[in-house]
Model the fold of this input.
Amino acid sequence: MLRMQREDSKSSHKIIKGVLIVIISTLFVMYALFPFAWMLATSLKTNPEAMSIPITWIPERPTFQSYTQIWKGYHFTTYFMNSMLVASSTALLATFIGALAGYGFSRSKFRGRTFLIGAFLATQMISGTVIIGPYFKILAKLNLYNTRFGLMIALTTISLPFCAWMTKGYFDTIPPEIDQAAMVDGCSRFQAFLLVVSPLAVPGMVATILFSFLLAWQDLLWALTLTATESTRTVTVGLAFFVGQFQVNWPMLMAATLVASLPSVLLYVFLQRALVRGLTAGAVKQ
Done:
């Protein structure tokens, strides 16, 4: 009898614990999704309704006018394509160069290796506002100021330390015997890295690609400082210019913000499994 009571007590505790977990998880999800829901609702309103008091939680007459307007007369297409080009190029270039550095750190043993790895990672602690001035002067001297290529180079250098560190941790989990077997079969060191080791490190590569893409896509400070014309501005800078001096068209701003967030959201949704594998596998050396 006492044993049955204990089992009933344990089962009731499990049920209560499960219910609490569901409630807390639901609250966190609602808290995280509420801003997006509010942005979506505002983007479907007219400007007078968005400014009305009391506020309306659900649009009275939903309209997609704001979505059509941002593509027509506000250079939003140019901003969006610039961001896609800069972010994609930054992600691929930073991942490739970072993977080369990570592979070298993982496979080569040389004096000062530990210090160099630590110094590489320590650069991440330097604020971007401190080094943006020298970057501005360098790009101006090289005639790369106000160019998409110059912005891509700047963002690539910011992403490199993390990319090298992440890929180094993942390469550590791949046995060096695989490289040696490839080189015995006639591959050079670079061919072994490119054709044999890199395919095994795809989850780690995905993690660095996502990080670099999101860093470049959401950047405002560097894009605002290193670009000056409509033809080179990115989507984050474009969103900043949606805020006028005397008035803000909230439906258009919310519509542009939602559209601008879609690439990063979709990229994460489709690559989240590889991202989790890359982060967890690269965190532990086998």
